[in-house]
Predict the 3D structure of the following.
Amino acid sequence: MPVLDNALEAGIVAFVPILFAARFAPFTVDAVRRLTRPVPRGLVPFWAGIALDTMDQRADSVAAVLHGIIFGRIAPSSRQRRRITAPALIVGHTADPIHPFADSRMLDGELENAEFVRASTLLEWRFWPDRLNKTAAEFARRCWATPGRARRTSTP
């Protein structure tokens, strides 16, 4: 689920307010950290633990990472992507502004050895992972296969 050229606007809307808070009102990020840090992760549901870990960040680190994401290059250029020959599994789905479907299709056209699979929804891999897990496992097996070469075995 790539984040490339078409995710810029959604990234700005989602992350600039957090960057602003971390840079110009760091006490807000630090206050959230102080509130969430003492909560024992083993006592809360899995996704609540993920949310708590996400909020357990230092303001200066948050500001630095988000500054890099917003103002830096988060992915290789199109020219560089076209030179990538490694196999790639690209998962795309509609209705996600952070991982736009257009970016998935664009990347599929740019990478020489890409395999594209369309997820049914944004949440398929989270809640109904069987189909995509099977697809990813088959893709990995094909990548690791060594056709035409005998596998080396150690001799006693």
